[in-house]
Amino acid sequence: MKKTLIIANWKMNLDTHEASTLLHRYHETIQIHRDIEIAVAPSTLSLQPLSVELDRRKFRLCAQDAYFKDEGPYTGEVSFAMLQGLVHYSLIGHSARRVYFGETLETVRDKVTAAVRNGITPVICIGETKQERDDGETKQVIHDQLTTALSNITSDDIEEIVIAYEPVWAISTFEGEVAKPDDMQKAFDYIRFQVKELYGARASEAVRVLYGGSVNEHDVRAYLALSGCNGVLVGAASLNYAKFSAIVDSAYRLHHQVE
Ligand code: PEP
User: Fold this and answer.
1) pTM for this one?
2) Is the distance from the beta carbon of residue 41 to the nearest atom of ligand 1 less than 6 Å?
3) How distant, in Å, are the alpha carbons of 14, 147, 223, 225 from that of 210?
4) What is the spatial distance between Cα 153 and Cα 195, in angstroms, rounded to a whole number?
5) Ligand 1: does its nearest atom lie under 6 Å from the Cβ of 127?
6) Which residue has its alpha carbon closest to ligand 1 atom 3?
């Protein structure tokens, strides 16, 4: 059975001191289980200091982004090559990158390629906006984002890839529209169908698919219970160690069929 992957995306919220404090709280409160893997995604600035403090038996580090060139005159950027050995995972194509920083399908493809080239497992974030959803374009968006992102990924590499389905309209909308797990199943099935079309049945079963979008300690179980859901990407709730710990606990209870 695959491990459930839970990623805490701290976004641009904590300076290094605050990030270190939160990591300490994680160490104190989160129970580690064999069948659950936890990755923490602080800002790029905090990756190095946190790597020294992090108990690697408990947590893995995840970058939030990096640049696709390995080196060169790219002022302000940090490359995947520079993150080699420091992080296990990197988010790529998060909707914030696509929306605020104009990342195109091709940029995401190049970043996925660069991550794999440098031995970092990409967590490819895909998902439709509200407008695209209202226009009935969800499948087309998933298709385009996924097939372009995977263009340079060989069948040898595909089984390691992680795909996070994050409908943009459901991100950080705790008070607003929240994705209904039943509706999400169609997207999950379609993602695996696409991987199957590109790489065959074995790859489509092996690839890990996560859900992300306003996940909290109350509804995480319903998302994880979706067929083919291998974990969650958690934003806002991961900034609260008690909530995040409860999310991990819920995942454990689901694995072990405890109410
Ligand atoms: C995210 O930004 O990846 C995310 C899932 O955020 P939130 O949990 O706050 O919706």
Assistant:
1) 0.97
2) no
3) 24, 17, 9, 11
4) 11
5) no
6) 235
The CB density around residue 13, as the number of other CB atoms within 10 Å, is 15
Tokens 């695996």 belong to residue: 192
The pair of structure tokens assigned to 118 is 């440098």
Whether residue 116 contacts residue 156, with contact meaning beta carbons closer than 8 Å, is answered with no
Is the CB of 63 inside a 6 Å radius of any atom of ligand 1? Answer: no
Identify the residue whose C-alpha is closest to ligand 1 atom 1: 235
The dihedral built from the CA positions of residue 187, 198, 89 and 64, taken in this order, carries a sign that is: negative
Reading the block at residue 197, the tokens are 């079309």
pLDDT digits (tens, 9 = 90+) for 12-30: 999 999 999 999 999 999 9
pLDDT in tens, 41-62: 999 999 999 999 999 999 999 9
Looking at this protein, which amino acid is placed at residue 7? I
Measured N-to-C along each axis, helices 181-199 and 138-149 cross at an angle, to the nearest 10 degrees, of 40
What class is the 4-255 domain?
A: alpha beta
Counting from 1 in the atom list of ligand 1, the atom nearest the Cα of 171 is 10
Which residues neighbour 241 within 8 Å (Cβ) at sequence distance 6 or greater? Answer: 22, 25, 26, 28, 29, 30
Q: Domain-by-domain residue ranges, the chain?
A: 4-255
Residue 170 token pair: 């459901």
With helix as H, strand as E and coil as C, how does 191-217 read?
A: HHHHHHHHHCHHHHHHCEEEEECCCCC
